[in-house]
Amino acid sequence: MKTLKDLEEIRKRTLDTINLRKDQSGTRIVVGMATCGIAAGARPVLLAIMEEVEKNDLSDVIVAQTGCIGMCKLEPIVEVYRPGEEKVTYVKMNPSKAKRVVNEHVMQGKVVQDYTIGAEE
Amino acid sequence: MKMYRSHIMICRGTGCTSSSSEQIAQEFEKQLKLHGIDEEVIVERTGCFGLCALGPIVIVYPEAAFYSLVKPEDVEEIVKEHLVKGRVVKRLLYAETIEEDRIKSLNQVNFYKKQVRVALRNCGIINPENIDEYIAFDGYKALARCLTELKPEEVIDIVKRSGLRGRGGAGFPTGLKWEFTAKAQGDMKYVCCNADEGDPGAFMDRSILEGDPHSVLEAMAIAGYAVGGSQGYIYVRAEYPIAVKRLSIAINQAREYGLLGKNILGTGFDFDIELRLGAGAFVCGEETALLASIEGQRGMPRPRPPFPANKGLFGKPTLLNNVETYANICPIINNGPEWFASMGTEKSKGTKVFALGGKINHTGLVEIPMGTTMREIIYEIGGGCPNGKAFKAAQTGGPSGGCIPADKIDVPIDYETLTALGSMMGSGGLIVMDEDNCMVDIAKFFLEFTVDESCGKCTPCREGTKRMLEILDRITKGKGQEGDIERLETLAKNIKASALCALGQTAPNPVLSTLQYFRDEYEAHIRDKKCPAGACQALLQYIIAEDKCKACGICAKQCPVSAISGKPKTPYVIDQGKCIKCGACLEKCPFKAISRG
Ligand SMILES: Cc1cc2nc3c(=O)[nH]c(=O)nc-3n(C[C@H](O)[C@H](O)[C@H](O)COP(=O)(O)O)c2cc1C
Ligand code: SF4
Ligand code: SF4
Ligand code: SF4
Ligand code: FES
Ligand code: FES
After folding, report:
1. What structural domains and CATH numbers belong to chain B?
2. For chain A, which residues lie within 8 Å of any Cβ of chain B, measuring from their own Cβ?
3. Which of B492, B451, B489, B485 is nearest to B469 (CA)?
4. Which residues from B are below 8 Å from A19, CB to CB?
5. How close are the terminal C-alpha atoms of chain B, in Å?
6. Rounded Cα distance, A36 and B376, in Å
7. Which of A80, A118, B67, B219 would give a disulfide with B58, using CB separation of 3.0 to 4.6 Å?
8. Parallel, antiparallel, or unpaired: how do β-strands B190-195 and B318-322 relate?
């Protein structure tokens, strides 16, 4: 039998894996959180993004996690999906870069070219 | 659950399943393995997305790429291009979701833009066979809150304040019904769910059960807590095998988690649910017949009162609600009654699910706030009538309802306005008719249905509807007589006044409503032996225009019954006695000399 606490744990754990499906009207920021992503420091990046989103009251922005994106050496990777725009992939992220992406790209629509995968290649 | 970079959501609702979506799901699994990315990408089977006409539908996240009319042979391309190389396969995207070559968000697509999904909130988003996904989107939170923070009276008060009314047809205030059942005296009480869904063309309840079965289970448990019941039954038709299977899985998973059964969440509250399969008789959807059928007796209505709230299943106080009614309960508890009551009109709160069918471009399932106009549903969401035909009327309320003619297209849809127009909300079937539909024929269609489904217990319904059908039948065959309209009206009045249950009492509605708005069509059939819409075969005539006929003889060769004769140089003629109105000659005449009228 599950307790209230168990339920809450299942909720959190499962939500992390599936909230990238929810509500497509706003911007979605997806963080790669597979083993290598986490090893490369994806968790502080995720936390920084969530903090920034909360601080600025971006209620229609969804922060979601995803698994292996297949580019382990470029982790941590963050993808930004703004409605009606091409996806932008940011690589080798850290918390301060992530904050800049939220402020400039998500809030003002200006892609931070320096951090994109294009700049890396 | 493991983290996957991409989620492939494949509709396994009844519509898409019948167009081989399971085969597509398996092909995806095979191709993902073949390309070595089956550890990174997950295939999920979901319930209906609503746009069944474009099925099979596949949505790929995180892009939310909406692929429509997917065929098994398209799968390899989607895997190779989209999932391996990250390039969306534009050719297969639902055209309306792309704008200037980019994917629009689904909420900006016409079909979804005006929709507000409350009862359908999880349909297409979660895997209905995985309770964890339901829990992730706030599942069982409402039940937990009720059991640990609210008294039964408080739960009832919340439902009352939300303004929720029954979605099964009659629109009775749900909170009041709960209160009556809670106050009824009895050592044992039952909580039942009506999933009989017998209206032709309706599949709202089926989609909820297929796409989000736990939303109904959780709400029933909350209802049990509120009214003091510990046993629930879901009466579902056996013709819904996918719904039955998903419900059984859901019940088992809920039991495993201790969310059904004894001592739920350690609070001391017991509640369990069993399924009862119905054979699919329309009358078994009527509440007293349904309860009789659960008891194992023949599904026949009995007079009320006593109402089920006082004397229902096995003579005990019983709460019966519709599937969609239950599906609204948890969001009401979670978001508050004020949130729910802020949607809709003065007396009709919240949203309503409709199954759009008939002459409409986007057949499928839509959920709209009460008060949305018929115009918004038909033109903005439904995309209008196919082939540029003119919209003529829409039938709501199925065989108990009536039609809304084109000139009433701007009225807001809620319980009151539909009733005032001579129709009713009903359970949510919405059948669209265009200029080619004959309204006498439509009335006949619904009456044929009720004649077939009448249980035969009382005479007005058993015999009266048959007499009405006979009259309609002869009108459509060009054998109508003066006085037939009046005869229909008298019969209708008598049946409405004397039938035992609502099946009989409402059976004349489609006739009365078409008479109210399209009386001239009835008159044209009876007096001029003409069907203005050109739908009644028996009243059609194929005629060769003498001045246009070049006597080529092509039509005569086409005619399957040799009804056309002629000689060179003189116009050909059709023998009306022999003609079976197949239309072959009209299509083939190179000089357009043949017309239908
Ligand atoms: C002939 C007939 C068929 C009915 N069929 C259904 C049905 O399929 N599903 C349903 O929920 N209610 C049906 N009803 C209405 C039920 O009797 C009952 O009012 C309803 O299930 C109550 O639930 P609600 O208050 O949540 O709407 C039918 C009524 C009649 C008279
Ligand atoms: S009205 Fe019709 S369906 Fe209802 S009890 Fe009478 S015969 Fe049966
Ligand atoms: S096909 Fe047309 S033109 Fe030729 S004989 Fe028939 S009606 Fe006349
Ligand atoms: S409608 Fe068919 S049956 Fe009638 S005359 Fe033309 S081809 Fe023959
Ligand atoms: S595990 Fe991170 S990209 Fe592969
Ligand atoms: S059954 Fe697939 S969209 Fe409705």
Report:
1. 6-106 (3.40.30.10), 131-340 (3.40.50.11540), 351-434 (3.10.20.600), 439-527 (1.20.1440.230), 541-596 (3.30.70.20)
2. 1-4, 7, 10-11, 13-26, 28, 30, 32-34, 64-70, 79, 81, 83-87
3. B451
4. 136
5. 65
6. 49
7. B67
8. parallel
Instruction: Look up the pTM and report it.
Output: 0.89
Nearest atom (ligand 6) to Cα of B13: 1
Q: What is the ipTM of this complex?
A: 0.84
Q: What's the pLDDT band for B291 if we cut at 50, 70, 90?
A: very high
Q: Determine which helix (DSSP H) or strand (DSSP E) holds B319, and give its type and residue range.
A: strand B318-322
Would you mind telling me the total number of residues written for chain A in this entry? 121
**B2 confidence band (pLDDT: 50, 70, 90):** confident
pLDDT in tens, A1-23: 789 999 999 999 898 888 888 76
Protein fold of A24-120: Glutaredoxin (3.40.30)
State whether B5 and A84 contact (CB < 8 Å): no
Per DSSP, the three-state class of B67 is: strand
Q: What's the CA-to-centroid distance between B592 and ligand 4, angstroms? A: 14
